[in-house]
Structure formats: structure tokens, C-alpha cells
Design brief:
The protein has 179 residues and is α+β, with helices and mostly antiparallel strands. It is built from 3 helices and 7 strands; from the N terminus they run αβββββββαα.
């Protein structure tokens, strides 16, 4: 079942997520639903707070390889950085260049409960950093200068209002339902 993605400025996006104490069937089910949601939304990654769950759980899909990690953390990051364009399912319609470490080592727990270490570079490293930021209540716009962030948020708000108007037009066109 696809989950509803929370959109900025939903407060859950700004809260620090709680650690996953144990890999339970409930956590595995949430992970499966997050994978399905990510697949339907065509993104690279999704963090549990983005679907309203304050748990440290992420799913990442780069090059058709899924990583599902509980309690992920960057344990090593290269000093070498690179700029890359980022967007976010919780901030649809805007994107910006963000500077990130070029290579990272990420540790977490697989859904089997076993510890996992992933060495990532390029896009995969960027996605891990982006999703782990979500677990700390940090959005990609927070990594931009103030003026650029404000410009993007204005554009986001315009796009959000336009989506609302479009939904209202669609509702008006829909035939009334008989009882």
C-alpha cells in the first residue's frame, strides 16, 4: 500500500526521528510500504518522517538497487565534495544544487537485523546524505544560502497554490455521485 508523502511545511519533517529499537514485522511492513511508495513516486530515496513516521528508517533506490536501512549513519565522509542537483518528494516542484561529500560510508541495520556497511560515491552517496538529513529534521533547502532558500520557497509556494487550484478544478469537473 502506497503511503501519503508529507509535504513541507508539515512539522514532522522538522523533527528528529527516533531510533528503531528492534527490527519487527511492523518495521519490515513499513519498509515495504516505503519501497512501494518510492517506486510509485519515482524518487531516489525516502525517509520515514516523509510518510509521517518518526523512526530512523530510509529506503534508497539507485541504479535499480534498493537499500533499506534502519538507524543509518554516515560514519565516514570524504573531504572532497561535489555540487549536484537535488529535489525532494516533500518539496515537489523545486530543486537546487547542493554541496555534499563525494564519498561516504554508511552503517545501519538491514531488515534482517544484521549490521550493514555501504561504501557509496556519487549519486548514491548524495542520496544517502539527503535521506539521513531527513532523519535529523534537515531539508536540502537548509543547505542553501538564505537568499536562494527564500527564492526556492516562494517558487514552491506558487507551485503548491497552483496544484491546489488544479485539484479544485478537477473536483468541480467530477460528476456528482448518486447515493
Amino acid at each position: 500500500m502506497a503511503l501519503e508523502i508529507r509535504l513541507y511545511p508539515d512539522p514532522v519533517l522538522r523533527e528528529r526521528a527516533e531510533p528503531v529499537d528492534e527490527i519487527t514485522d511492523e518495521i519490515r511492513r513499513l519498509a515495504d510500504e516505503m519501497v512501494e511508495t518510492l517506486t510509485l513516486r519515482v524518487g531516489y530515496g525516502l525517509a520515514a518522517p516523509q510518510v509521517g513516521v518518526r523512526k530512523r528508517l530510509i529506503v534508497v533506490d539507485v541504479d535499480e538497487h534498493f537499500y533499506v536501512l534502519a538507524n543509518p549513519e554516515v560514519v565516514q565522509a570524504s573531504e572532497e565534495t561535489e555540487l549536484g542537483v537535488e529535489g525532494c518528494l516533500s518539496l515537489p516542484g523545486i530543486e537546487a544544487e547542493v554541496e555534499r561529500a563525494k564519498r561516504v560510508v554508511v552503517r545501519g541495520l538491514a531488515m534482517s537485523g544484521e549490521p550493514v556497511t555501504v561504501e557509496a560515491e556519487g549519486l548514491l552517496a548524495r542520496v544517502f546524505q539527503h535521506e539521513i538529513d531527513h532523519l535529523d529534521g534537515v531539508l536540502f533547502i537548509d543547505r542553501l544560502g538564505r537568499a536562494k532558500r527564500q527564492r526556492l520557497l516562494k517558487a514552491y509556494e506558487r507551485a503548491r497554490r497552483e496544484r491546489e487550484r488544479e485539484r479544485e478544478r478537477e473536483r468541480e469537473k467530477a460528476p456528482a455521485r448518486a447515493l
